[in-house]
User: Fold these one by one.
Assistant:
Number 1:
Amino acid sequence: MMLSDFATNFTAQFVALDIIGAIPIYFSLTHRMPVAERKIMVNKSMLVAFLVAVVFMLIGRQIFHFMGIEIFDFKMAGGIVLLLIALAELVGVPEAEKNSSGSTGIVPIAVPIISGPGVLTTIILQASTSGYLLTTMALILNYSIAWFVLRNSNKIQKVMGKDGTLIVSKIGCLLLTAYALSMIRTGVFETIHFWKGH
């Protein structure tokens, strides 16, 4: 039973994280960085993403309740941040790109691409149903996989070549835009549903 619950938690988190789908987005934000700098950023980003996820798992509901924030508010806010970053990348604004990536990679790779509303919502719900141990174990495994994939992205980049990487990075920007709009749309619909219920 415990193994089955772990597998369920892992799968749900893996789908919510969607690290494979995040690779083009990651390329779009980091393709101009030297490999060494990119690896340092991945390490920092994954550490911050994991800490954010653990904090939200433990006290996320209490934080939201204290601040009067609903899950759909969080989704819309995260969607708007991602949308602004994606648009800056698409139109090629250097300063916007520099500021969006940040010197530590915390925004937007750690939050909200890795530890985004989908993952945070999932682990908050899992912690209340399956307990903190199984949820944390599944989280560690998922984030270890994400770390490995991002750390080795330069090998994927070498196979694809410079032109291929540039194409994928632009596709990643479009995907990031679509993902951001999806988050905003979901948040809006959940807001409407919430107020209809009241």
Number 2:
Amino acid sequence: MFKTKTKVWIEQDGTFLVSRGKAELLQRIDETGSLSEAAKQMGMSYRHAWGLIRKLEEAMGCKAVLSIRGGNKRGQSKLTAEGRKLLEFYVQRNNGIQSYSNDGPWAKPMVVAICKHQKKVLMTKKGKVWSVPRSVVKEGDDPQGTYGKLVKDLGITAAKVQFKTLVDGDTLFLVKEVQLKEAPSFKKKGAKHGFFDKGNLPDCSEQDKFILEKLG
């Protein structure tokens, strides 16, 4: 099954602060209490790790890590309040975005078939509402297979096909725009069908109007 991967980074007034690498370094410093040990766990030299922290602090304009130089705790490191705040901000945003991209509304996109014949658009009617043909991609499904089933159920023959992606709020639409060779003889039961000019659409949802408007 496919998974979405995204890269998250944090900026301050347009200046890059931290992404996964620096965030992990901060996290390991917080866990181990040692910059040296954190660097070792990440497979980098102490000098390189210290350079990353120094660049981060220059970008922040304040200390992110406090190193203790004397006393019984000599050699230990800990995050400052600002460093911890930044780390928590990154972790919260990163986890939220990764979860949303794979488990949120976009994880189950809507497949739409826009079928055109002589510049008119095919719409189906269920009850009192007209809509463009659509179905939801279920978890683990191949969108191509969903497209195929949707078009097959309509009993249509495509002359030309284009694939497009549209976003409306929390909904991701995978659009298969189909130019028909001829007006179809519908096989699908339980629904009425008709072709309409986009300038004279029947009673349909704002979502359908959005899709047709974006496709031009």
Number 3:
Amino acid sequence: MRVLVKELRELDIFIIKYRYWMATLEEDIYKQSVWLVKAFSSDNITLDYSIESLKEIDLFFEQNSAVPGIAKQNGKLSQNLGPVLFSIGAYVGDTIIKALPGSIWITDDKDPEGEITARIKLPTGTIIWPMQRVINRFKNGDEDSIYPYGFLVVNEISKEDYWDKAKDIQKNFK
């Protein structure tokens, strides 16, 4: 009995340590977005979280895809495809969030497909899925381009009385 209690305590300590060191999906999104900016910077490409910078993402796909859904041999998508697409999705989502204050990531750390189903709730209540858009960009090519997606999302929201709502939201955070 004492051995079992000791093992259970050790397991509890392990779980506590694991939870402490385990990042949430939202933290991973942030880290990977920052990582992508640094990775592009090492190739002298500037990602500055502007909607215009999403053109660089589309160019990256063009340069690193042989055909839609197939990475160029020895290209930057030829290894670690899933993590790279996740990082790009994180950047795309963070870019839209920065362009539309009051937007938030919605994640579910318990969802085994949480990296794919992470979504953003815009100030208007509209939900978008940047991770899925990035996956579709890779699979379908330029018919699912990233820049027009980000541009249209931001401009459609901007046409509404969004800016008044955003000012109200920001007042609540002060």
Number 4:
Amino acid sequence: MNPMPSFFRLMWFVAAISFVAGCSTTSPPKKVTPPAVVIEESAPPARFTIHAPELDVWNAVGQLLVRMDGVTYETRAQKLGLYAVEYRGEKFLILTKALLLSNEITSLTTEVRGALPTGKTSNSAPSRELLGLLEARLPAELLRIASEKKHPPAKKAVPKKKSAKPAVRR
């Protein structure tokens, strides 16, 4: 047997396969344009600072929250400086934190911020709105509380009970 004819058959077979593969009807890949990236300007975080001691701010925030319409006061933790509230259907935390004195901060200053239950700063519309209300009302509330400390309401005098003298045994 002559090996040449099998070689030519193999070459014809490879040529036929190449020809069929080159004539395929697949369309060229379409250019895919990525969607336009829209970067929305994020809202400022729900936070503000006030020149007052942390405990005074925490107490005043609590007084304001319990009197505000639409705020459901859930719980509080003084040592953590937090109130858990619900406002406009959203649950979040109101945190108060004393800021350290520095070159920029030269008097007692407290930061008040809204946070998610995970602790991350909240940027939601309800938390920003509630913090805006607190920021507007807090200075007057601090003054009201301070004036009550200076001039506490008069206490009613409670008459002392007369104690009977113990009987003397003889």
